[in-house]
């Protein structure tokens, strides 16, 4: 209600001035209709306002129900997520146990293989009756080791060849760039007479000095045109500022009148609200709030278990 001073720009002033101008024309038209015998539509407007208020209350209740439903869905989603976490935790514990069992079996197998290898070596050294078979197994084991070493050497050799090819490719590109630069023709400086024309035989042909003079004349003409345009802009700006000042005066008057009308409507609304009954809460909202409280308690309990 209070008229707080707000700094407005030009567009805002013109918009607000046009708005108040339309309102004034509508009010004058309404008064003219009343003078000609037309009825006052205030009762219909009041009924329409009440119906809109009821519709607004229903819409607000629907919005509140949607908000509570979203909150309930969020609580249910969090609870489901906690259940999934607990289930994953159980699966992870089971997988860790299975992994430990597999590692134990692998360790036993590895120890058994080492034991067999030692027995084979002992059989070869001591000349056991099964020395021939032990030697064959030992030879296969050595061949396998040699094969793995050869494969690793081949991989290292391949990487070295690729690096060498990349170096050669970069060196070849650098040589091509140097040759391209050397093949460019050298620029030779030539003395130019600024007062001579190009000699092409054209009627409008001019020397560089004449072109510079023509350019200076064009710049002076452009400067004069800019000065004229600047003066025109200044005059238009002053006229616009005067128009804005007039609009501001008109806006101040309208705001004062609207402030008094708003204060009167506020008092009427306050008096009606004090005499009226408070609307009851929707039953759907109460049920949703109750469900949200239950889901929240269940989620906190589940979080404590986690």
Automatic annotation (TrEMBL):
Entry keywords, A to Z: Coiled coil
Superkingdom, taxonomy of origin: Eukaryota
Compositional bias per record (Basic and acidic residues), positions renumbered to this chain: 265-286
Residue ranges the record marks as coiled coil: 85-178, 208-238
Record region (Disordered): 264-286
PANTHER family, per the entry: CILIA- AND FLAGELLA-ASSOCIATED PROTEIN 99
Name of the featured protein: CFA99 protein
């Amino acid at each position: 209600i209070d008229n707080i001073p707000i700094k407005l720009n030009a567009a805002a002033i013109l918009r607000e001035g046009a708005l108040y101008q339309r309102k004034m024309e509508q009010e004058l038209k309404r008064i003219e209709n009343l003078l000609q015998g037309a009825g006052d539509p205030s009762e219909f407007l009041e009924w329409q306002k009440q119906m809109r208020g009821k519709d607004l209350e229903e819409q607000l209740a629907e919005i509140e129900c949607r908000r509570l439903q979203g909150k309930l869905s969020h609580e249910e989603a969090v609870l489901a997520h906690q259940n999934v976490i607990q289930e994953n935790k159980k699966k992870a514990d089971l997988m860790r146990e299975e992994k430990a069992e597999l590692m134990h079996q692998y360790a036993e197998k590895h120890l058994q293989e080492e034991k067999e290898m030692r027995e084979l070596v002992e059989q070869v050294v001591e000349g056991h009756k099964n020395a021939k078979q032990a030697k064959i197994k030992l030879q296969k084991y050595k061949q396998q080791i040699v094969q793995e070493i050869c494969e690793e050497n081949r991989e290292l050799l391949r990487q070295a060849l690729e690096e060498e090819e990349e170096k050669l490719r970069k060196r070849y590109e650098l040589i091509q760039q140097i040759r391209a630069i050397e093949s460019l023709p050298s620029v030779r400086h030539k003395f130019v007479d600024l007062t001579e024309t190009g000699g092409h035989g054209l009627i409008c042909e001019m020397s560089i000095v004449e072109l510079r003079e023509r350019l200076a004349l064009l710049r002076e003409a452009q400067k004069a045109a800019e000065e004229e345009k600047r003066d025109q802009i200044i005059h238009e700006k002053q006229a616009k500022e005067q128009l804005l000042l007039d609009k501001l005066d008109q806006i101040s008057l309208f705001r004062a009148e609207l402030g008094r009308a708003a204060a009167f409507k506020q008092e009427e609304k306050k008096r009606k609200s004090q005499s009226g009954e408070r609307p009851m809460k929707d039953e759907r909202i109460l049920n949703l709030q109750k469900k949200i409280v239950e889901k929240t308690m269940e989620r906190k309990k589940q979080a404590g278990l986690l």
